[in-house]
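Hello,

Our lab assistant flagged a job as stuck in the queue for most of the afternoon. It eventually completed. Since we weren't sure the result was trustworthy after the delay, we are filing this so someone can double-check. Below is the sequence as submitted and the structure that was eventually returned. Let us know if re-running is recommended.
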Amino acid sequence: MTSIDDSTFGVGWTPKERGDHKLTVTFLVTKQIRIPIGGYVPDAAQCIAYGPGLEGGEQFKPAEFIIEARNKLGDRIPVGGHNFNGVVIDPLGNEIPIEIADNGDGTYLAVYNPFLPGDHVVKVNLNNDPIKDSPFHVPIGDSSETANAARSYAEGPGLENNVNNSTQRTPATFTIFAVDKDGNPKSEGGDYFDVFVEDPLFDLLPVEIKDNGDGTYTVEYQPKEPGVHHVDVVLRNKERPLDWEHIKNSPVEVSIKAGTDPSNCIADGPGLKDGI
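-- returned structure --
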């Protein structure tokens, strides 16, 4: 027997008798080779996820992490094509989608966008089965770029008692001051403040809000009835405007004085009587 290459051998033999001959080939194992069972088949219980998006994050900023496919033996699988999926649950119970990109090498880039501060639950699955350590609980902090509702405030005569009256010609005014999460006044505009004014008859009054571009906002409303007016000043979520929070000193109950009513005014005196 002669070796032709690593997998081919030549065999020669000389028959000594006529008739059919039986040829038996045997081999001797000289080396053990480990053959992984299901080497390229991922096992959800062994697959892992890691990265900053599972450790913490900031409101309105994309959070990223890596998913790694592993087989039953815990070995990383060097190819892609697996059905990883997931979802994030925010503090209000809303679902946030996770975008997952296949890197082709057994790893997957996952990205989600948190719109609210607070604890988020990140669920990552292989098909319908959770991967190792899923779900993950991730704290999301307040935005460093937008105004912070709990620190922003409003002040001015339009929020003070008995300063305005129901027949004044000029509107009641006050100012909103935008403050960031660290307590610093903002120097630019663009935040989504909103104001609601309800008079004693439960009617909502028209409100004008002017962004001054320097972190302050001028608010005007025209009172028409004497009595207590309910004023709500809120900051809307820039990505989900239907979600909002009251600012620091909102709501406010504002007393409006009764103004002069011409129909109830009288005039008297000799100058209004017939002369002699």
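-- support follow-up --
The delay was a queue issue, not a problem with the job. The result is valid. The mean pLDDT is 90. The chain has two domains: 48-141, 153-256.
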